[in-house]
């Protein structure tokens, strides 16, 4: 049959729409199938779907024609099975005028039928964004005309908010590329902000972080930006805003706490302390308005450690007597720290050696109300009682261990009278043994060799039993066994 005799039947919407691999993914609030401006510099590949029964031959070829807004802009013809990798047509850039374009293709089948595809909508944007008022110059509402200082950053969340004037052509996907320079238009990039539909519903504000501002130094600085729309069209660079920056952190001077009782000494004798330990933050300390700070005594986890929040404008504080006494026989670290950033700033540390009350000033245990002499064991009919009087700075935070030691026929023999004993309020007021009796068993005393000596010793833990002295720190009781 002659070609003139072929009856062509066109079936509409029989094939899927063509696709444009270079088109950008759709985003909320954006235009459909936006073409990147860079992709339009070369022929644009449009891919098509081959119909189900394709049987091309040299005498019965097949082809597709691509149409844009009803005008043919490209085609492809084949005479043998077409591999998937070749199912495309390249469309010249001049076919992509600005705006929304409709593309479709028509497939010409070997049997002379025609199949029309669905439409593909592509969006072409070749217009760059237009800067807003004052050629887009940034404003800094929180800063005003003031210099940008360290204090400003400390009181404004360590950032500087910048306000952009509204600009023409704003759309989701636009990118704000902003700069911070030491010379105009150096365009040293800080960061990029991709706008969303939600961003466009409110004033356009972004932040320069304090870290960037400090890292890029003090002096005259220039802040500007440009806008690149999602297609890749760029605006002019905005007119720089000029700022005077003095944000480098001032050297922190945090001298050690002053302790009037000690002067320059590093040793604190408990026998000379009758009240809380007064301490003062030196006038030279640099603690800025609004900064929190705290004072500390001792390692934070140890018994007797003290921490107190500082009060702005107040320099004089007192470590409670109880906390000072608990550090007896230790080196206590005394300091303050300013709570800024992730890591607090500590002051110089003052190491204080807390010396306990000398043994000579501590009481001696008594047995049966006596502090020495002879003990007539044979004349005893019941367990004799041990007592220990009160001492300077006695408290319920303390513990006592009492021990008896004597000589039996088999050698030295020990008897623990009290072990790790926690003092009660009665003990604090009247001494150990004033409330609950503390006996030495008569059976123990009867083991001891007549003519030998009985020794009763006592140890005091100032920190609730956490640490103990190596040697007794009370007077020693000696009695002759009769």
Would you identify the regions where 5 or more consecutive residues have pLDDT less than 50? 1-8
Question: How many domains make up the coordinates?
Answer: 4
Count the DSSP helices: 5
- Based on CA inertia axes, which overall geometry fits? elongated
Classify the helix fraction into a percent range: under 10%
What's the average pLDDT? 95
* CATH class membership of the largest domain: Mainly Beta
Second-tier CATH architecture of the largest domain: Sandwich
- CATH topology (level 3) name of the largest domain: Immunoglobulin-like
* Strand segment tally: 30
Biased composition (Polar residues): 348-364
Region (Disordered): 347-371
Write the SSE topology:
Layout: E1 10-15, E2 44-47, E3 62-68, E4 71-78, E5 88-91, E6 99-108, E7 114-117, E8 120-124, E9 148-149, H1 150-155, E10 159-164, E11 175-181, E12 189-194, E13 204-209, H2 210-215, E14 219-228, E15 241-246, E16 267-269, E17 277-280, E18 292-297, E19 306-309, E20 316-319, H3 321-325, E21 331-339, E22 345-346, E23 350-355, E24 366-367, E25 374-375, E26 386-387, E27 399-408, E28 411-422, H4 425-430, H5 442-445, E29 453-461, E30 477-481
Parallel strand pairs: 1-7, 9-15, 16-23, 25-30
Antiparallel strand pairs: 2-5, 3-4, 3-6, 6-7, 6-8, 10-13, 11-12, 11-14, 14-15, 17-20, 18-19, 18-21, 21-22, 21-23, 24-26, 27-28, 27-29, 29-30
Biased composition (Polar residues): 348-364
Region (Disordered): 347-371
């Amino acid at each position: 049959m002659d070609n003139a005799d072929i009856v062509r039947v066109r079936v509409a919407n029989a094939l899927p729409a063509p696709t444009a691999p270079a088109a950008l993914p759709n985003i909320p609030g954006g235009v459909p199938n936006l073409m990147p401006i860079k992709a339009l510099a070369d022929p644009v590949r449009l891919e098509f779907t081959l119909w189900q029964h394709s049987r091309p031959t040299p005498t019965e070829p097949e082809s597709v024609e691509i149409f844009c807004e009803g005008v043919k802009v490209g085609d492809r013809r084949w005479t043998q099975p077409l591999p998937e990798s070749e199912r495309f047509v390249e469309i010249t850039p001049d076919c992509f005028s600005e705006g929304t374009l409709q593309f479709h293709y028509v497939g010409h089948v070997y049997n002379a039928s025609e199949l029309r595809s669905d439409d593909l909508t592509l969006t072409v944007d070749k217009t760059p964004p237009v800067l807003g008022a004052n050629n887009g110059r940034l404003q800094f509402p929180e800063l005003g005309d003031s210099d940008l200082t360290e204090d400003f950053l400390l009181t404004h969340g360590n950032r500087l908010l910048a306000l952009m004037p509204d600009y023409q052509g704003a759309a989701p996907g636009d990118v704000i590329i902003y700069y911070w320079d030491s010379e105009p238009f150096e365009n040293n990039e800080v960061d990029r902000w991709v706008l969303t539909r939600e961003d466009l519903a409110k004033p356009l504000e972004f932040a320069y972080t304090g870290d960037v501002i400090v890292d890029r130094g003090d002096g005259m600085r220039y802040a500007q930006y440009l806008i690149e729309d999602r297609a890749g069209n760029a605006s002019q660079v905005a007119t720089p805003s000029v700022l005077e920056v003095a944000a480098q952190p001032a050297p922190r001077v945090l001298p050690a706490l002053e302790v009037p009782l000690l002067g320059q000494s590093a040793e604190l004798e408990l026998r000379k302390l009758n009240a809380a330990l007064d301490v003062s933050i030196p006038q030279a300390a640099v603690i800025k308005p609004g900064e929190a700070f705290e004072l500390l005594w001792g390692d934070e986890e140890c018994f007797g450690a003290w921490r107190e929040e500082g009060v702005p404008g107040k320099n004089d504080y007192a470590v409670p007597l109880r906390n000072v006494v608990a550090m007896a026989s230790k080196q206590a670290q005394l300091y303050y720290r300013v709570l800024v950033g992730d890591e607090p700033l500590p002051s110089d540390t003052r190491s204080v050696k807390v010396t306990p009350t000398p043994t000579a000033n501590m009481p001696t245990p008594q047995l049966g109300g006596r502090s020495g002499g002879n003990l007539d064991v044979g004349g005893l009919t019941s367990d004799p009682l041990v007592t220990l009087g009160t001492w300077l700075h006695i408290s319920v935070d303390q513990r006592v261990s009492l021990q008896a030691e004597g000589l039996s026929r088999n050698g030295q023999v020990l008897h623990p009278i009290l072990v790790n004993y926690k003092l009660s309020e009665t003990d604090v007021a009247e001494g150990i043994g004033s409330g609950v009796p503390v006996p030495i068993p008569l059976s123990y005393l009867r083991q001891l060799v007549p003519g030998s000596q009985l020794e009763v010793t006592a140890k005091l833990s100032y920190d609730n039993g956490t640490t103990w002295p190596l040697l007794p720190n009370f007077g020693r009781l000696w009695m002759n066994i009769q």
